[in-house]
Amino acid sequence: MKRLVILGGGESGIGAAILGKKQNFDVFLSDKGIIKKEYKDILLDKKILFEEQQHTDEKILNADWIIKSPGIPKKAPIIKKIQEKGITISSEIEFASRYTSSILIAITGSNGKTTTTSLTYEIFKKAGFNVGLAGNIGKSFAWQVAEENYEYYILEISSFQLDNIQNFKPHIAMVLNLSPDHLDQYDYNYQNYINSKFKITKNQDEKDYFIYNLDDEITQKWLQNNHTKAHLLPFSLKEKVEKGAYSDQKNIYITTNTEDALKMKIEDLALIGKHNVANSMAAGIAGKISKIKNEFIKQSLADFEAVEHRLEFVLKINGINFINDSKATNVNSVYYALESMKSPVIWIVGGTDKGNDYSELIPFVKQKVKAIVCLGLDNEKIINTFQDIIPNIAETHSMKDAVNASYLYGKKGDTVLLSPACASFDLFKNYEDRGIQFKEEVRKL
After folding, report:
1. Is the per-residue pLDDT at 258 higher than 90?
2. Fewest Cβ atoms nearer than 10 Å: which of 142, 164, 271, 388?
3. Which amino acid positions bind ATP, per UniProt (predicted)?
4. pLDDT above 90 covers what percent of the chain?
């Protein structure tokens, strides 16, 4: 019996353990932190051996195969020891993909992954497909492969998950856009991050499809210098394309064959902002490839509700709109958020910096932001970048103080936008916790 060791006892780790047990591996799970009670109960119930608050070398380094949680840094001491022993390290998506014959649609990019994945899932569900939602979103992919029977999976995939794939092969792969993110995990080398993202297409063949952003310079450059066997289907906000999708500022057009093109007014799309026009087109292409009728695609694109923590409207108080964009953990996400704002903005920003360059936001900040409220333990970089542009900058170290400060800056017709451009771990458990606290404090005003 082959020994499978799983590092990390969160959603993906527990799912991998369940699937490993079902596939008759000798399974052991190890977590450096404390495993949640609900997950621990599952491990005990399924008689899966585990340890927490430690990584014991002798229990890990005797593995035949290791499944690593995307949250464990590549530089962690235990990872270096595993690599020295030459044991294969895979991500949960790689592991799960080997035990399913379902059709996989995998979506990555620096921004818009969750929205586009959810939107694609909505299109397939509305059309009556037997479809699961997994990856970086929803229930663990491996868990669903073990216990569900879906014919299709729509997967949100991060660069960390792609780092540890070997044979993962989606029928439809998407790269939505690229901008510097998580550079602290890629030796501050942007090219390493780019290479990681494009692994999504490395195993695709002539029967598969690669959907990409024609307006993204990094993607264009990659395609000039690298080859994918998959059919290429671009989407663009700037250029007309024969096959794929494009916009002429009034309508979007989607076509993957010669007949039955889809045309839809931009004003009828549920999601606002240019970036969401692009996301809607990408999701629509996946629907067309899968021969979903135009009416179902249009309906889904018109009815879709925004993802929680992504430009999520919270409340209007005394004429001031409060918007939760806690999922904006990099500069590029904030760029899109500010671009879509139509009223003066009080911008709540800050957290754990990931090697951010805020300079590309300066034009939008000059044009749209009237006050900045810093929310983080170290706000020096943000203050240094914007202090000569924005006279009103407040420093806060709790969500309560940040919301109160932003409310005091605001007046009727303004928007308070939580769009942090940073990770959340200095003051919060994760971006969801940050967004939930924001909504709670807004409701207390």
Report:
1. no
2. 388
3. 109-115
4. 82
Domain boundary among 54, 71, 90: 90
The answer to the question of whether 189 is labelled as a binding residue is no
The Cα–Cα gap between 437 and 121 comes to: 28
Kindly state whether residues 338 and 400 are assigned to the same domain. Answer: yes
Angle of CA points 187, 192, 193, to nearest 5°: 95
pTM equals 0.80
**Angle formed by the axes of helices 11-22 and 37-45, to 10°?**
10
- The answer, yes or no, to whether residue 349 has pLDDT greater than 80, is yes
376 is in an annotated binding site: no
Are 323 and 435 contacting, i.e. CB atoms less than 8 angstroms apart? no
15 is in an annotated binding site: no
Query: Does 402 have pLDDT greater than 90?
Result: yes
Rounded CA gap, 383 and 403, in Å? 18
Under a CB-based contact definition with an 8 Å cutoff, are residues 252 and 271 in contact? no
**Contact in structure between 303 and 119 (CB atoms under 8 Å):** no
| 244 assigned ligand-binding residue | no
Is residue 229 predicted with pLDDT exceeding 90?
Answer: yes
| 112 appears as a binding residue in the annotation | yes
Q: Are residues 112 and 181 in the same domain?
A: yes
User: Does the annotation flag 30 for ligand binding?
Assistant: no
d(CA 180, CA 42): 38
| Residues sharing a CB contact under 8 Å with residue 397, sequence separation 6 or more, in sequence order | 375, 376, 377, 427
Give the 3-state secondary structure of residue 60: helix
Q: Which of the listed residues 283, 303, 323 is the one where a domain comes to its end?
A: 303
CATH number, domain of 252, equals 3.40.1190.10
Which of 103, 24, 21, 26 minimizes the C-alpha distance to 59?
Answer: 26
Q: Look at residue 180 and tell me whether its pLDDT is greater than 70.
A: no
Backbone angles phi and psi of 367, in degrees to 5: -80, -35
114 belongs to an annotated ligand binding site: yes
Number of domains within the chain: 3
Residue 258 belongs to what domain range? 94-303
Q: CB–CB of 281/247 below 8 Å?
A: yes
Q: Which pLDDT value is given to residue 41?
A: 97
